[in-house]
Specification:
By secondary structure, the protein is mainly beta. The chain contains 1 helix and 12 strands.
């Protein structure tokens, strides 16, 4: 079956639940406010969120609270007719010596019109950017766990297409 660019964009959005930086990182030694901000652009659609709660400050192991990412408690918004929702509370661990972070899993649902696609990716690795708390993803593949037959079975997100900023 042929997939339209819109469906491919929806699937790519769903796999890239975590998002690119929209504000500067907390400087080393300053007080962290245990928040995470982000944005991702997928096939011309932009999704953003700010101020999601974390239960600790990087580089301590932490979890991002999905209720502060998703509406109504959070402010995740997308343009281009796409909506998204994070289905889990992703956990992050940090290895400052290796300049990486790791995420146990990301589980997200993307929706456009009547088409809904749910994807999950496990064991994601993120590269730290300099001395900031910005982490950019290494390539990963997310597998469809439910949704329309129109959704691709899996989608690969290239390195650098998603990132997290912890502040």
């Amino acid at each position: 079956m042929r997939h339209t660019p819109t469906l491919t964009a929806l699937a790519a959005l769903a796999t890239a639940a975590t998002l690119a930086v929209i504000s500067p990182a907390t400087a080393a030694g300053s007080a962290a406010d245990q928040k995470a901000d982000g944005v991702i652009v997928v096939a011309g659609s932009t999704c953003t969120w700010t101020g999601a709660n974390t239960n600790a400050a990087a580089p301590d192991a932490l979890t991002v609270d999905r209720t502060t990412v998703n509406k109504p408690g959070g402010n995740l918004t997308c343009n281009g007719g796409i909506t998204a929702a994070l289905n889990n509370n992703p956990s992050f661990t940090f290895d400052d010596g290796a300049a990486v972070a790791r995420t146990d899993s990301i589980d997200i649902t993307g929706r456009q019109s009547f088409i809904s696609c749910r994807y999950k990716a496990a064991n994601l690795v993120w590269d730290r950017q300099g001395t900031t708390r910005k982490y950019v993803n290494q390539a990963f593949t997310a597998t469809k766990t439910s949704g329309s037959f129109l959704c691709p079975g899996s989608v690969t997100t290239p390195a650098g297409d998603a990132s997290m900023l912890f502040r």
